[in-house]
Design the sequence.
């Protein structure tokens, strides 16, 4: 990029030049390139083949070669004899997209070949046509005759892309960017070779000075492109991006304002709903069914629940302990009873005097009775009688009786304690159940439900209103807007400074060429950078759009030749020097007028190096008489050109 231009932009935008360059390149904005000579495009051969169908029968075989710079014509004595088709096929091959080629003719075609030179290099685009679809290639032909394939295609889209890439690169053209679409919905569109090639074709109603598309200021951009005004491309690129970013900023601003309005409306609505909810809440009694009362009852249930549970658990444990003590006391009581019965039975049996054996009824002798008294041996079994055991039985009975008394007392105390805990547990359980009933009743009451709903509504609306109190966010300005604006301003300054007297020089050339081509009483022309052409004709101010169709055609040709001449003169033009003119006789009132125009075009072509003009006309006699048969491809009578 130009150093001074870039430094000025970086300083104004407050960034480093390297950062500025990188950001602008990402946006497709580059500084003006050094001046370079324009390339010359010259058609050398047009050829195509096919087979007519329907009512028109016969083979198609057209081959027109060895064309050079100068004025050439394809002509017939009647209309609808194929002259426009030749030009349309030429345009199809050059553009990769048909312009006005009729569907039936396109279906008849089977093969097309167009050879052309860019400066001294020969190129050939050749393709077969299968059911209207092209498939072929673009090659470069060496001096030796060998070829190098540059690209190939198998569809309409591929063909157009192939020719667009080639022509834009080879002719050193820059794509034209513009904003297009409805307000606030415009998008960046890029016009390439298909649009720029309109500057080479002169047909239709000649409503545009350059090309045939008015949208997005395309004629003005084509004018600046083909004349090569310094910095024009950079101004165009930066202007398009600037409008795109300004649209983004405008949409963001509108969105922010709309959001702010929506927020204000929402706040007002929420505040109104909040006041209404507060009135509903205030209409309820302050105690009955309030959330506070419900919380109190819930708290009471929560407080009583662990108390009742603890008492129930203690009561259960006390009951278990009392039962165990009662069991032990009962066991001691049985032991006392058994011991007492044993002592009584022992004393009873020891006090008896046996007479005979209780088993065999043998009588007890007196000697045994005496030994029992003397030796304490049993008169029946002779075993020793345990006097000590009988004496200790009384002592054991006393101990067991004391233990029984202690166990019974403990069991009585435990049972009494368990009863006390049982009474307390019952009271606590009753209180808990009562609290639960009150809580359930309060929670199920219609008043509580309504009040609770009112409280929730108030809380929700207060929260929503609080959220809406946040300050509105400012719209986000695209970060590159300042940089791109600075780039556009600096490029525009350089453009205006570099433009110099180019427009004045073009005006002089267009005026001279217009007069030479027969625009009657033309006194002054003023070409503006927006591709509008103001005229003074017969002493009266007028404009390009208000003159006759024939005069518009002459002025279009004059403007194109002027662009070519002044561009070559200044070493900055981009026009390739090819003009394709369809049916100029339709805009003329007599063959003499056509002959005059052709004569002047011949003179102009001789004066303008590299200029090639290919004309299609149905006035064969006037064309051939003026140009000569060697410069024409013609047919007579009702014959077709192909």
Sequence:
């Amino acid at each position: 990029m130009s150093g001074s231009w870039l430094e000025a932009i970086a300083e104004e935008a407050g960034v480093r030049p390297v950062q500025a360059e990188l950001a602008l390149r990402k946006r497709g904005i580059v500084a003006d390139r050094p001046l370079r000579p324009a390339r010359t495009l010259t058609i050398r051969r047009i050829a195509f083949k096919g087979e007519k169908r329907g009512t028109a029968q016969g083979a198609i075989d057209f081959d027109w070669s060895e064309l050079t710079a100068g004025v050439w014509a394809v002509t017939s004595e009647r209309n609808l004899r194929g002259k426009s088709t030749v030009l349309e096929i030429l345009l199809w091959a050059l553009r990769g997209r048909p312009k006005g080629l009729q569907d039936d003719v396109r279906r008849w075609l089977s093969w097309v070949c167009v050879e052309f030179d860019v400066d001294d290099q020969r190129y050939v685009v050749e393709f077969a046509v299968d059911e209207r679809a092209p498939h072929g290639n673009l090659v470069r032909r060496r001096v030796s005759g060998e070829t190098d394939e540059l690209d190939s295609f198998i569809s309409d889209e591929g063909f157009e892309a192939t020719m667009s890439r080639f022509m834009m690169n080879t002719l050193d053209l820059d794509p034209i960017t513009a904003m297009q679409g409805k307000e606030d919905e415009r998008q960046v569109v890029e016009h390439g070779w298909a649009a720029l090639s309109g500057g080479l074709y002169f047909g239709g109603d000649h409503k545009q000075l350059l090309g045939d598309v008015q949208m997005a200021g395309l004629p003005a951009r084509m004018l600046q492109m083909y004349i090569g005004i310094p910095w024009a491309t950079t101004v165009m690129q930066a202007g398009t991006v600037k409008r795109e970013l300004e649209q983004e900023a405008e949409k963001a601003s509108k969105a922010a304002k709309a959001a702010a309005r929506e927020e204000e409306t929402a706040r007002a609505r929420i505040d109104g709903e909040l006041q209404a909810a507060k009135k509903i809440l205030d209409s309820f009694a302050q105690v009955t069914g309030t959330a506070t009362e419900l919380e109190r009852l819930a708290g009471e249930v929560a407080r009583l629940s662990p108390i009742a549970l603890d008492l129930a658990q203690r009561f259960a444990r006390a009951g278990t302990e009392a039962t165990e003590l009662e069991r032990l006391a009962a066991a001691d009581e049985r032991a006392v009873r058994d011991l007492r019965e044993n002592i009584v039975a022992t004393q009873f049996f020891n006090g008896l005097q046996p007479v005979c054996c209780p088993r065999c009824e043998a009588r007890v002798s007196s000697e045994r009775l005496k030994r029992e008294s003397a030796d304490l041996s049993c008169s029946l079994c002779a075993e020793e009688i345990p006097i000590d055991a009988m004496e200790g039985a009384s002592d054991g009975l006393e101990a067991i009786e004391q233990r029984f008394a202690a166990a019974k007392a403990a069991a009585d105390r435990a049972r009494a304690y368990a009863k006390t805990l049982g009474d307390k547990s019952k009271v606590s359980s009753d209180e808990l159940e009562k609290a639960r009933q009150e809580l359930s009743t309060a929670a199920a009451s219609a008043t509580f439900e309504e009040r609770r709903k009112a409280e929730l509504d108030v809380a929700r609306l207060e929260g929503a209103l609080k959220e809406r109190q946040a300050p509105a966010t400012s719209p986000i300005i695209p970060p590159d807007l300042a940089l791109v604006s600075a780039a556009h301003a600096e490029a525009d300054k350089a453009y205006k400074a570099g433009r110099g007297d180019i427009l004045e020089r073009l005006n002089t050339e267009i005026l001279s060429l217009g007069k030479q081509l027969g625009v009657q009483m033309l006194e002054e022309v003023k070409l503006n950078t927006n591709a509008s052409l103001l005229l003074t004709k017969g002493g009266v101010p007028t404009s390009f759009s208000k003159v006759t169709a024939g005069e518009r055609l002459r002025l279009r040709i004059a403007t194109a030749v002027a662009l070519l001449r002044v561009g070559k003169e200044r070493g900055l033009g981009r026009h390739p020097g090819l003009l394709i003119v369809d049916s100029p006789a339709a805009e003329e009132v007599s063959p003499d007028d056509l002959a005059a125009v052709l004569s002047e075009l011949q003179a102009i072509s001789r004066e303008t190096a590299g200029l090639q003009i290919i004309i299609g006309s149905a006035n064969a006699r006037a064309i051939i008489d003026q140009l000569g048969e060697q410069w024409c491809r013609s047919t007579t009578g009702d014959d077709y050109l192909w």
Summary: The domain at 289-445 is CATH 1.10.287 (Helix Hairpins). The first strand starts at residue 41 and ends at 52.
